[in-house]
């Protein structure tokens, strides 16, 4: 769960993703109403989370300048752009 303010949310199918000022993005399983996964791949506030159209990937962006692409099936990071924005 988040330990600080939530900044953004996105929903796809059974999952809700949230990003926060604690540098985490949290995945909630809406079917079971439980926390599914907590990912801490950013080194700054997570300002945006968005699922792809088919829900196969989650993209997150952070104050650290990075954008991360995570596969939703296994919640593994597939791509990190370290300085995608400034």
From TrEMBL:
Classification via InterPro entries: PAK1-Kinase_Regulator, WD40/YVTN_repeat-like_dom_sf, WD40_repeat_dom_sf, WD40_rpt
Gene3D superfamilies linked to this entry: YVTN repeat-like/Quinoprotein amine dehydrogenase
Keyword Acetylation: no
UniProt WD repeat ranges: 39-69
UniProtKB keywords: Kinase, Transferase, WD repeat
GO MF term (any one): kinase activity
Function: Negatively regulates the PAK1 kinase. PAK1 is a member of the PAK kinase family, which has been shown to play a positive role in the regulation of signaling pathways involving MAPK8 and RELA. PAK1 exists as an inactive homodimer, which is activated by binding of small GTPases such as CDC42 to an N-terminal regulatory domain. PAK1IP1 also binds to the N-terminus of PAK1, and inhibits the specific activation of PAK1 by CDC42. May be involved in ribosomal large subunit assembly.
Protein name: P21-activated protein kinase-interacting protein 1-like
Taxonomic source organism: Dicallaneura pulchra
């Amino acid at each position: 769960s988040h330990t600080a303010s939530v900044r953004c949310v996105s929903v796809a199918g059974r999952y809700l993703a949230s990003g926060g000022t604690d540098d985490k993005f949290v995945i909630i399983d809406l079917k079971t109403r439980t926390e599914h996964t907590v990912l801490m791949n950013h080194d700054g506030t997570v300002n945006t989370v968005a699922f792809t159209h088919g829900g196969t990937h989650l993209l997150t962006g952070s104050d650290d300048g990075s954008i991360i692409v995570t596969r939703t099936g296994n919640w593994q990071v597939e791509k990190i752009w370290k300085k995608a924005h400034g």
